[in-house]
């Protein structure tokens, strides 16, 4: 490796926090950092396929602008000049926003999502848009209309979903940070299976304006990163009330980065009561997952935490309720894709009525998983079935919220494995939707209750050498607690290992032949 | 159905009882749209007054217009409704290209206002209480223009254009309970009901309420129930039709009458009424079949997850209640008493639609009777002749000034009509017109006496008759004097002076 290549390699290995301080001290320019990441993308993304669109020129221009302002002595934000990858579910003025769907191929929105605007206002450098299951429906990115993303730990395996592109980009050192969206685990499960960190904030903590809706009452935008502190720094940038999102909370939030730093520095968990959710573990969980999870609990205990078992019986019905509420809302949210105002239009041969055009477009533009859920949701909302399906599911949701409230009266955080298994093989569950749905067993309850959840790596499963994640959940609005506890456990684990987990990931062979042009890869 | 096939109205009423129900959509005149910050204005270049929210672009989210909520509460209160401490928006799902999201944000099982009633005055002055089931908030759809067909309807069109400027305009839909007992007056009741809703929203200042512009739209539901002999149980309710596109008060009345006659003819001929929407055609005075409408239409309503429940505070509701203007029916009763009008006079005023002009004219100092006389008389006549709205011709202030000039004897009624004409022509205030046209009554007795003496001298036979006590003979002299004075004299004063001079 040439010295220049080494320097670039090192820049992509830095955490966002370290990059930010290196940038602030002017040891390196944002343009150099951006070029390093673009080079890395060009080198490895042919294999990983995390990105649907790389905005190389836009990123360079943004980086130059930040460098100029820094040179002019302006005070910049904590993450100014740091590159970031953006899940394709988020609307971006200068990049196509397809949500992984054929029906939105090439669509460039006339506006930025609020979180994207906040990134730009805070001088982060958008690198491009990341792959995802179509309209965020899936746990593997295999439902992307543009082909799957591959897990950097093993290219034959899934990177999780729906936000597999964001997690893989971060895990493959193509970006230090990424934005994701989490409706039933789409941030946390990909983070778990790629050895990265993913946080689903409290519902309403981050604006949904400009996030292409899957299920409005469950969707939440959040950070993906390689460290807990980095996630917290990004959360500080994107969080807060947005008058354009009626469901966004008007709370004043504490600094999440400060909470993470406090957790890194004070490694004692004395006084913290941790509840292990009986229903989110045990039978059906991979042995290596359970093993690493148990070791993490021991580490928490040794740091002074009190670890107890808690039971939340209603969680047994969470998946059933989720797969009624989500398709119901999705069937309505996806009705707007009708070819009239934007996106794909398919004219049936021989012409036809507007209904014929809408039908032909939706037939050609939506993939099988999307159609499956639209049909499910339409059925669940139909007259005569509403009470039995949608109505009952909402009652289960209430019971789950009560279970959370009951256990949170006794414990500070809840804990479970982030996913039942490590990354499965591409294609393994594609023909078995139910088995795919069960993968979200652990993450769904937090969405149904609107509480925050974070996933961070706790090691590699002995049997397959793949990352295992632990999930912490806290009461609504207690996001800071998750950053604090998460940062402590992360520090304890890295002290024990002597390195970060991701530093053990295979170094993907650079591909010199990879196209370097602007645009889709 | 052509006119000849309709059943005679009186005969229809003998056989059937009309059962009514109305859905009135009121467009609110808020500054911005129901769920976006686009100005609440349509017309102009198509698709220029739209935001991502109005176009239903992916990722966009609605935000409730608080002013629209306040207006809706005020309207609910004015309709005697209870205001829900918590009400929710719901999605009404159906595919139609004028509906950007392919669902309409409306309210379903939790409307903001429910359970009220409104007093409606029939043309003969009787009051009829119309029960109000609910009033709920929703957004308007875009506007479709069907091009290439003969009718302008979607059937037969080559293509259709969509203008989303109207998409998202705030609406309140007022739904009545089933209305029984209107009987023979059903068409008049329909007109009076819509007219009352219009008066209410105008008095609240929450809508421009112009039916011809679609600010106020009425869908009229009607069914017929066959009458049964005394002692027999009542027949079941008939199948209803919903007549749409009724965009004037007169049309509401005509459409109901037509539907009663049409349905009666079908039922009496052994046919059945199809549950459907019907389109009113102003030109032919008929309705035509629209789309079949079933109670089982499945809109897959569910609570709108993008919006929080609407929870107005009790303080806000009371504040809005305290600010309510007098209900139009009560206000009318009070005005009629205050003004001392006969039933006929008052009905005349109400039917002329000039109530507000008369109120303002009296407020400016004129007597109610004078104000009534001018507005429903000369001004209405000119307006009618010119085919314009009387209120656009002259201001209440100028009318009151005109009345004052008459009361002071400066103008006769005849002169006052000329002054009015000058004011209407834009020649200035009544005082200015009097001056510029030189129209004041000649009140100088000297000038009058000279003219009277001339007239008496030229008509000695008349003078003799007056002196003989035949006072009515004075008319000929008075006429000559008025002619000589070019009408600018007070005839009563002339008469006094004629008798005085003749007997001098």
TrEMBL record, chain A:
Lineage of the organism: Bacteria, Bacillati, Actinomycetota, Actinomycetes, Micrococcales
Organism domain of life: Bacteria
GO MF terms held by the record: ATP binding; glutaminyl-tRNA synthase (glutamine-hydrolyzing) activity; transferase activity
Gene: gatA
Name by which UniProt lists this protein: Glutamyl-tRNA(Gln) amidotransferase subunit A
Domain Amidase positions: 32-482
Assigned GO CC terms: glutamyl-tRNA(Gln) amidotransferase complex
PANTHER family: GLUTAMYL-TRNA(GLN) AMIDOTRANSFERASE SUBUNIT A, TRANSAMIDASE
Pfam families: Amidase
From TrEMBL, chain B:
Pfam families: GatB_N, GatB_Yqey
Gene3D superfamilies: 1.10.10.410
Record carries keyword Ribosomal protein: no
SMART domains: GatB_Yqey
Assigned keywords, A-Z: ATP-binding, Ligase, Nucleotide-binding, Protein biosynthesis, Transferase
Ligase as UniProt keyword: yes
Catalytic activity as recorded in UniProt: L-glutamyl-tRNA(Gln) + L-glutamine + ATP + H2O = L-glutaminyl-tRNA(Gln) + L-glutamate + ADP + phosphate + H(+); L-aspartyl-tRNA(Asn) + L-glutamine + ATP + H2O = L-asparaginyl-tRNA(Asn) + L-glutamate + ADP + phosphate + 2 H(+)
Sequence ranges assigned to domain Asn/Gln amidotransferase in this UniProt record: 357-502
Biological processes, Gene Ontology terms: glutaminyl-tRNAGln biosynthesis via transamidation; translation
Subunit structure: Heterotrimer of A, B and C subunits.
NCBIfam families registered for this protein in UniProt: gatB (TIGR00133), PRK05477.1-2 (NF004012), PRK05477.1-3 (NF004013), PRK05477.1-4 (NF004014)
Family label: Belongs to the GatB/GatE family. GatB subfamily.
PANTHER family listed in its UniProt record: GLUTAMYL-TRNA GLN AMIDOTRANSFERASE SUBUNIT B MITOCHONDRIAL AND PROKARYOTIC PET112-RELATED, GLUTAMYL-TRNA(GLN) AMIDOTRANSFERASE SUBUNIT B, MITOCHONDRIAL
Its job: Allows the formation of correctly charged Asn-tRNA(Asn) or Gln-tRNA(Gln) through the transamidation of misacylated Asp-tRNA(Asn) or Glu-tRNA(Gln) in organisms which lack either or both of asparaginyl-tRNA or glutaminyl-tRNA synthetases. The reaction takes place in the presence of glutamine and ATP through an activated phospho-Asp-tRNA(Asn) or phospho-Glu-tRNA(Gln).
Protein name: Aspartyl/glutamyl-tRNA(Asn/Gln) amidotransferase subunit B
Gene responsible for this protein: gatB
């Amino acid at each position: 490796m040439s010295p220049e290549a080494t320097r670039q390699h090192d820049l992509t290995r830095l955490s966002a926090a370290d990059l930010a301080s290196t940038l602030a001290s002017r040891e390196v320019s944002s343009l150099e950092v951006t070029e390093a990441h673009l080079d890395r993308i060009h080198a490895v993304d042919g294999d990983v396929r995390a990105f649907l669109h790389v905005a190389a020129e836009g990123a360079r221009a943004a980086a130059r602008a930040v460098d100029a302002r820094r040179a002019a002595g302006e005070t910049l934000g904590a993450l100014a000049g740091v590159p970031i990858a953006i899940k394709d579910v988020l609307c971006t003025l200068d990049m196509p926003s397809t949500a992984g769907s054929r029906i939105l191929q090439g669509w460039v929105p006339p506006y930025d999502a609020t979180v994207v605007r906040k990134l730009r206002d805070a001088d982060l450098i958008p690198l491009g848009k990341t792959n995802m299951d179509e309209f965020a429906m899936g746990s593997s990115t295999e439902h992307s209309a543009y082909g799957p993303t591959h897990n950097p730990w093993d290219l034959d395996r899934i990177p999780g979903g729906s936000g597999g592109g964001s997690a893989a980009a971060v895990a493959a050192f193509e970006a230090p940070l990424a934005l994701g969206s989490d409706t039933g685990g789409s941030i946390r499960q990909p983070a778990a299976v790629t050895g990265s960190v993913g946080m689903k904030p409290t519902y309403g903590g981050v604006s949904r304006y400009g996030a292409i809706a899957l299920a409005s009452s469950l969707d939440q935008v959040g950070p993906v990163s390689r460290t807990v502190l980095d996630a917290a720094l990004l959360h500080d940038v994107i969080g807060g009330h947005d008058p354009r999102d009626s469901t966004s909370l008007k709370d004043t939030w504490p600094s999440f980065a400060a909470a993470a730093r406090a957790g890194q520095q004070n490694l004692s968990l004395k006084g913290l009561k941790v509840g292990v959710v009986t229903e989110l573990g045990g039978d059906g969980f991979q042995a290596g997952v359970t093993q690493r999870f148990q070791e993490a609990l021991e580490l928490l205990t040794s740091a002074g935490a009190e670890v107890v078992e808690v039971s939340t019986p209603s969680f047994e019905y969470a998946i059933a309720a989720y797969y009624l509420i989500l398709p119901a809302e999705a069937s309505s949210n996806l009705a707007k894709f009708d070819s009239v105002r934007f996106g794909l239009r398919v004219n049936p041969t021989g012409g036809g009525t507007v209904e014929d055009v809408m039908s032909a477009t939706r037939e050609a533009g939506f993939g099988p998983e999307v159609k499956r859920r639209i049909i499910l949701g339409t059925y669940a909302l139909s007259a005569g079935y509403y009470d039995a399906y949608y109505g009952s599911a909402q009652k289960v949701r209430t019971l789950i919220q009560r279970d959370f409230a009951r256990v949170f009266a006794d414990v500070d955080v809840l804990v479970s494995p982030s996913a039942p298994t490590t990354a499965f093989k591409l294609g393994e569950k594609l023909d078995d939707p139910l088995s795919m749905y069960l993968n979200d067993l652990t993450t769904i309850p937090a969405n149904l209750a609107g509480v925050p959840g974070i996933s961070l790596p706790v090691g590699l499963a002995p049997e397959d050498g793949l990352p295992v994640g632990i999930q912490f959940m806290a009461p609504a609005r207690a996001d800071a607690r998750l950053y604090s506890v998460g940062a402590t456990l992360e520090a304890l684990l890295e002290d024990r290992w002597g390195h970060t987990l991701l530093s053990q990931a295979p170094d993907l062979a650079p591909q010199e032949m990879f196209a370097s042009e602007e645009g889709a890869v | 159905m052509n006119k000849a096939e309709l059943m005679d109205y009186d005969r229809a009423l003998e056989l059937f009882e009309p059962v009514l129900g109305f859905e009135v959509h009121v467009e609110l005149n808020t500054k911005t749209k129901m769920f976006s910050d686009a100005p609440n204005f349509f017309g102009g270049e198509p698709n220029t007054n739209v935001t991502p929210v109005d176009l239903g672009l992916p990722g966009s989210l609605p935000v409730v217009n608080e002013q629209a909520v306040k207006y809706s509460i005020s309207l609910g209160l004015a309709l005697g409704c209870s205001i829900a401490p918590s009400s929710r928006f719901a999605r009404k799902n159906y595919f139609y290209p004028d509906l950007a999201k392919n669902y309409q944000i409306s309210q379903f099982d939790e409307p903001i206002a429910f359970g009220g009633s409104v007093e409606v005055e029939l043309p003969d002055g009787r009051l009829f209480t119309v029960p109000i089931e609910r009033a709920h908030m929703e957004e308007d759809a875009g506007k479709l223009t069907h091009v290439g067909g003969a009718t302008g309807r979607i059937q037969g069109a080559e293509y259709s254009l969509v203008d989303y400027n109207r998409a998202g305009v705030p609406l309140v839909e007022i739904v009545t309970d089933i209305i029984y007992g209107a009987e023979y007056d059903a068409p008049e009741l329909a007109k009076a009901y819509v007219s009352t809703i219009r008066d209410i929203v105008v008095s609240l200042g929450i809508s421009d309420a112009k039916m011809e512009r679609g600010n106020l739209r009425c869908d009229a539901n009607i069914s017929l129930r066959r009458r049964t002999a005394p002692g027999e149980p009542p027949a079941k309710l008939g199948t209803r039709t919903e007549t749409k596109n009724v965009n004037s008060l007169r049309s509401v009345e005509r459409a109901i009458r037509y539907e009663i006659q049409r349905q009666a003819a079908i039922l009496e001929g052994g046919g059945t009424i199809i549950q459907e929407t019907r389109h009113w055609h102003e030109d032919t005075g008929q309705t035509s079949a629209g789309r079949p409408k079933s109670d089982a239409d499945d809109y897959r309503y569910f609570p709108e997850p993008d919006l929080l429940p609407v929870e107005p505070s009790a303080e806000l509701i009371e504040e809005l209640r305290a600010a309510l203007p007098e209900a139009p029916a009560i206000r009318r009763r009070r005005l009629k008493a205050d003004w001392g009008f006969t039933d006929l006079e008052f009905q005349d005023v109400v039917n002329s639609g000039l109530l507000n002009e008369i109120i303002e004219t009296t407020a400016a100092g004129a007597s109610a009777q004078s104000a009534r006389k001018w507005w429903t008389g000369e001004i209405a006549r000119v307006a009618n002749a010119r085919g314009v709205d009387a209120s656009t011709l002259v201001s209440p202030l100028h009318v009151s000034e005109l009345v004052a000039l008459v009361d002071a004897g400066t103008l006769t009624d005849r002169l006052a009509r000329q002054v009015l004409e000058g004011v209407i022509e834009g020649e200035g205030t009544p005082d200015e017109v009097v001056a510029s046209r030189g129209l004041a009554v000649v009140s100088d007795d000297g000038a009058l006496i000279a003219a009277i003496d001339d007239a008496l001298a030229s008509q000695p036979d008349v003078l003799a008759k007056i002196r003989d006590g035949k006072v009515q003979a004075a008319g000929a002299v008075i006429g000559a004097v008025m002619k000589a004075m070019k009408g600018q004299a007070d005839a009563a004063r002339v008469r006094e002076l004629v008798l005085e001079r003749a007997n001098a």
